[in-house]
Structure formats: structure tokens, C-alpha cells
Design a protein that fits this description.
The chain has 169 residues and is mainly α. Helices cover 56% and strands 6% of the residues. It has a two-stranded parallel ribbon with strand order 1-2.
Length: 169
């Protein structure tokens, strides 16, 4: 897509996803603490997922990590906007959205969930950031539809059930 867009003018690619998986894999490869860290993250992620179903906000540490990923994402989004203002054609992967909460490049925290004042404040900041990012409407959206086996082959580190849910939505 980038090569094709470049035939129409200067073009750049921007990845706007959270990239939590990349960060987690990097930490898991650290000597000595990598295995422990991977198990720790797995336990925290499980508590966050179970909290969502109960409309409960995440604990302090997971909320702080989620917010750090949001700040990182906003920084990359600002860079993309700057390139666009320079007249570049942007091919963005993982564009932010507000339509499906807690999934598919949307906010991780719910502003309605019950939690501490600090975590609720972080959730509101995340919501505001996503409202700002989604105020920039893309000119074209291309959505890839793949079957479950193809998705599992492309993302072997993801749970089959999670990929099945994504495909269903």
C-alpha cells in the first residue's frame, strides 16, 4: 500500500496500535527476570479481563501501564498528524476507534467502571485522548477479513478464543 500511495505523492507509514504484545515479548526475553515478568504480566492481564466483565476498573499498576501505552500511542499519532500537515499521504495501521470499547484499538479503560479516583481520572484522560484522535477522520479504511485458522497462523502467540472473538465482532 505504501509503494502504491507513493506513486501519487510523498507517503509515510504510521503504526498506531498499542504494541503491548511487542513490549511483553521483549520483557519476557530478559535474562533472569524474563520468565517471572511474563507470568506476572499474565496474571495482571487475567485480572484486568475479569474486571471488565464486572464493570470494575483495573488496579493501580495495570491502569498506569495502560495509560503509559495510551501516551505512547498519542505521541505516535501526533507524529502522524505532523506528517499529514506536511502534505504526506499516510498509510496508518491500527487506527484508533471508539465504537467497540476495550477492543480493536479502542480505549482499554471504561469511564463508567468502578475504581479508585486516580484510576477513574486515568480512564477519563484515555477517553479524552481517544476522542481527540478519532476526531481526525481517515479518508479510507481497509479492513482485513480473515478466517480463524489464518488469524491463528499469523498470530501464534494469541489465544485462539481471543482471535475467534475478534473475528466474530
Amino acid at each position: 500500500l505504501l509503494a502504491w500511495a507513493s506513486s501519487y505523492g510523498p507517503a509515510a507509514a504510521a503504526h498506531l496500535g498499542k504494541q503491548q504484545g511487542n513490549a511483553g515479548r521483549w520483557f519476557a526475553q530478559l535474562p533472569v527476570i524474563g520468565g517471572w515478568f511474563e507470568r506476572f504480566i499474565g496474571r495482571k492481564a487475567a485480572t484486568v479481563h475479569s474486571s471488565r466483565s464486572k464493570n470494575k476498573a483495573p488496579d493501580f499498576l495495570p491502569a498506569l501501564v495502560m495509560h503509559a501505552f495510551t501516551l505512547r500511542r498519542v505521541r505516535r499519532f501526533r507524529r502522524m498528524v505532523a506528517l499529514r500537515k506536511q502534505g504526506m499521504i499516510i498509510i496508518a495501521d491500527r487506527y484508533p476507534q471508539l465504537d467497540i470499547p476495550s477492543a480493536f484499538d479502542g480505549p482499554d479503560m471504561s469511564v463508567e467502571a468502578q475504581g479508585s479516583r486516580f484510576v477513574n481520572w486515568l480512564a477519563q484522560r484515555e477517553q479524552t485522548a481517544f476522542e481527540w484522535m478519532t476526531s481526525f477522520r481517515p479518508d479510507l479504511v481497509i479492513r482485513l477479513n480473515v478466517d480463524l485458522d489464518t488469524a491463528c497462523a499469523r498470530k501464534p502467540d494469541h489465544r485462539r478464543e481471543a482471535l475467534e472473538r475478534k473475528i466474530a465482532i
